[in-house]
Amino acid sequence: MDLVELGAFLKSRRDRLSPQAVGLPPGTRRRVPGLRRDEVARLAGVSADYYTELEQGRGQCPSEPVLHALARTLRLDSDETGHLLHLAGHPAPIGAEPLRMQSALRQLMQRLDDTPAMVITDMHEVVVQNHAAQVLVGPQAGLTGIRASFLFHWFTAPATRGLYPPDDHEYHSRLLVSDLRAAAARRGPADRTCSELVRHLLAHSAEFAGLWRAREVAVRHEEYKRVVNPALGTLKVTCNTIVTADTAQRLLWFVPDDPGAVAALRTLDPAEVWRDTPGPAFGVPPARG
């Protein structure tokens, strides 16, 4: 539970919502960019004093019905609603995947010989990659500490951004930070791994700091992206995701639009592909057989 962050998140969502969006007149003497606190409180069915305490990070933890009422009032989507529940210490609804899902992910990935696939954590640490994934995005596994996270490299090592076309960099930055924001809420403020990564990026990346303050939240599901590969050029791929029940790990697999790329991903040597363009390939290179 993190009531201070809960209050800051509520305020950021209130600021973005116009009176017209909730059926209120715009008025001519507004001093705030979005709704006023008393307007949110009235629409959610709580007292203005109680809502003010929530935004200030004070008072008791709100109940799930109150949080859902606030979510409806503030027009939160499913990702943002889950984030709100996590901040208040309530579990967000998840599926009923088996407890040994982490092992199952690895076994499933090993069967995807024809598809680039890898298992990552919610901190974007690569646990394992198959051969095709190493060729596609470069070897990214084998590191420890905050340097194991793709976010560390994306925001502190400019060469890493060569993995995507420059026009897509802003999109990927926002997506990475909004996903990390959701993970941070699930892990809680006492989590050392997440806290150390966030502190480092706040201190070393003005771009990350600005996006972190925006408090956008989005969990990655299916994405369409362009990958710049040194040997194959720019590939359009669909990135699909399966998440474990505890949300700590996820399986990613990439489906290229060009079927001809699949054969090349199976046969090329990732160490040779990324030898002269090492930026995205920050992990331990695969052993050569």
TrEMBL record:
PROSITE patterns: HTH_CROC1 (PS50943). CDD domains: HTH_XRE. SUPFAM superfamilies: lambda repressor-like DNA-binding domains (SSF47413). One of its GO terms (molecular function) is DNA binding. SMART domains: HTH_XRE. Residues 34-81 form the HTH cro/C1-type domain. It holds the Pfam family MLTR_LBD. This is Helix-turn-helix protein.
